[in-house]
Specification:
The complex is a heterodimer of chains A (174) and B (177). Chain A has 174 residues and is an alpha+beta fold. Chain A is built from one helix and nine strands, in the order αβββββββββ. In chain A, the strands form three sheets. A four-stranded antiparallel β-sheet of chain A has the order 1-4-8-6, with no helix packed on it. A three-stranded antiparallel β-sheet of chain A has the order 7-5-9, with no helix packed on it. In chain A, a hairpin with a 6-residue loop joins β2 and β3. In chain A, 28% of the residues are buried. With 177 residues, chain B is an alpha+beta fold. Helices cover 18% and strands 46% of the residues of chain B. Chain B is rod-shaped and about 120 Å long. The chains are: A alpha+beta (174), B alpha+beta (177). Chains A and B meet through α1, β3, β8 and β9 of A and α1, α2 and β1 of B. β3 of chain A pairs parallel with β1 of chain B, so a sheet runs across the interface.
């Protein structure tokens, strides 16, 4: 009797642990990549999302981002509008360059923005100013107003390497 | 029997509790993942700048038995042209100057080469030694300690007078980190 019960418990545990592993892996993947579709019967509401838009142009078909300096090239990916990329030349000691944009709630869920998390920070005297929007709540149709990223080469005028920088903001339904 | 079950592993009740707890956690994670998103911002910065040093504050300084000393710089201010009349053997004339970084990148100076002299034999030129290895950041100068080029006519020479002319050049390159 004892042996049968022990055997039954072990039979139950193995498939449950296995199923749990795959569910965890799936959820972690979905969260880490920002993917909005999951396998199985749970699917993301496609209308719960934020877009990066031009500061003065909220036409969702536009991929251009308003720029305050013509020497910066910036664009948002057309498909998902959740990635802004820019490139520029910097001269030591020159005034800061800016990229302006806004974040717009194009869905029907109220979203709250988290902290800006810097993934790649430049070195060698380049200073980047990221917008501070932690906790910003955007209802359906609302936008953040003009936000800006600034870059400036302030110290170490002997360096000539190129630099990359990146940051992410995670948002969630309120 | 119960002892054997405990010794051998978790009880069914414990397993059930663990799975239920994991299920709640997983469900919460799935719901969160389903209603959250990520915005990404990335950029590439290319540095650009100019390496440019200028000779400044050049002048004829102390002279002995020397006359009509003149010194000027070229249009790019990297070359210093000097002319002086040495009145008798043993005459001397100094030229002083300093260097300014007018570019947008740091630059390091190297020794100045001894220039070729036009006119006069037995004339010796001593170049400054306080510039070699000096790094100037944009806007900085070496003017707190002036550099000196010394011209001396060998006292053993027998000519009455000689006019000496030469051009000296500053050497520099972009500073490294």
């Amino acid at each position: 009797m004892a042996i049968r019960k022990k055997f039954k418990a072990r039979k139950l545990m193995v498939p449950m642990v296995t199923a749990s592993f795959f569910l965890v892996a799936g959820a972690v993947y979905a969260a880490a990549t920002g993917a909005f579709t999951l396998s199985g019967s749970v699917g993301r509401n496609a209308n719960c999302r934020l877009n990066i838009e031009a500061a003065t142009n909220v036409d969702p078909s536009s991929t251009n981002i308003f720029q305050t300096d013509s020497t910066i090239t910036a664009a948002v990916d057309a498909a998902t509008r959740n990635t802004l990329s820019f490139a520029t030349d910097l001269t030591y000691g020159a005034t800061a360059k800016q990229v302006q944009f806004q974040i717009q709630n194009v869905g029907n869920c109220t979203q709250v923005l988290g902290s800006m998390v810097v993934v790649d920070a430049p070195s060698n005297g380049v200073v980047v100013g990221w917008p501070s929007i932690n906790g910003l709540v955007l209802g359906p149709g609302q936008s953040s107003g003009p936000l800006e990223i600034t870059v400036q080469w302030t110290t170490e005028p002997t360096a000539t390497t190129s630099e990359i920088m990146s940051a992410t903001i995670t948002y969630s339904e309120q | 029997m119960a002892k054997n079950m405990k010794k051998g592993g978790l009880t069914q009740k414990q397993v059930g509790g663990i799975v239920a707890g994991a299920g709640v956690f997983l469900l919460g994670g799935i719901v969160w993942a389903a209603t959250s998103g990520v915005l990404t911002f990335g950029g590439t910065i290319n540095r650009s700048g100019e390496v440019d040093l200028d000779i400044i504050n050049q002048s004829c300084a102390v002279g002995v038995d020397a006359a009509d000393c003149s010194v000027s710089v070229s249009a790019d201010k990297n070359n210093l042209t000097f002319e002086v009349e040495l009145e008798k053997p043993g005459a001397t004339q100094d030229i002083t100057f300093c260097v300014e970084n007018v570019g947008t990148l740091g630059a390091t100076l190297a020794n100045m080469s001894v220039p070729s002299i036009t006119g006069g034999t037995g004339v010796n030129i001593t170049m400054p030694t306080n510039l070699n290895g000096v790094t100037l950041l944009p806007g900085e100068t070496t003017c707190t300690t002036m550099s000196t080029i010394s011209v001396e006519w060998d006292a053993a020479e027998t000519s009455d007078t000689t006019t000496v002319e030469f051009t000296a050049t500053i050497n520099y390159a972009q500073a490294s980190n």
